[in-house]
From TrEMBL:
Lineage: Bacteria, Bacillati, Bacillota, Bacilli, Lactobacillales
Coiled-coil region(s): none
Pfam hit, one: DUF6198
Keyword Electron transport on entry: no
Superkingdom, natural source: Bacteria
Keyword terms of this UniProt record: Membrane, Transmembrane, Transmembrane helix
Segments traversing the membrane: 21-43, 71-91, 103-124, 130-154, 175-201, 207-227
Stored InterPro entries: YczE/YyaS-like
The protein, known as: Fructose permease
Entry keyword Glycosyltransferase: no
Amino acid sequence: MAENARHHNPRSISMSKSLMFFGISLILNAMGNVLTLVTASHIKPAFSGSAYWTAAEANLGQALLGNNSLVLFWAFLVLGMLISFLNALLMKKLDWHRVVGNFLFMLPFSIFIQWFSNIFNQIMPNANSVAATVLYTVINFIGVGFIAVAISIYQRVNLVLHPADDLMQILRFKYFHGSAFKAMWASYIPPTIFAIIAFVITFPNLYNFGLGTIFAFLFQGGITGIADKYVFKNLKHQAIDVGN
């Protein structure tokens, strides 16, 4: 699979099914990201954290743009597009169709992030008891699971990708012989750089990193690999192209 996945292979499912799977994964991903962010911010003192990319982008967005009502939208959109051009470097070619596809993913994704954030921040109060803290921590981990499953679905559909997941897919099939686990870890280098920059700007504050971040770092790639086998298990990787 890994060797063959380097080359462009034909699609085996219809466009209507592709769009259906993509829509499911887009909503699942945005919801998972926001669940990790909201639960992380509503546990006092903060310890749960959010998914790794989510935490890094949210921190850098707040460091550069302040804590305004649209910070998540702009942070996820702009930083996501920066990763799109990193992907072009790794593939050794600038494919404008791919870059536009990344943007077409990021625009509704960023809107969903902001929308879900507004909803969940209103309906989820601060955790003021041990039971609520445990519940929010479980929801945080579930959010990470949603993200991992969503990544599995839309990577296999491969219509348009989040640039971070496009990065993971390039690393997975071009450099790591199909291993989702190794590729996920390698793809964490850019958000680590984002987090370091945010930490330097806002020192000594760094938000949204914690137990959930560690959980995502250790297990998100593995959950994606498991979802490849068991979530919509008849859905195979479509039209993969990671360059030469």
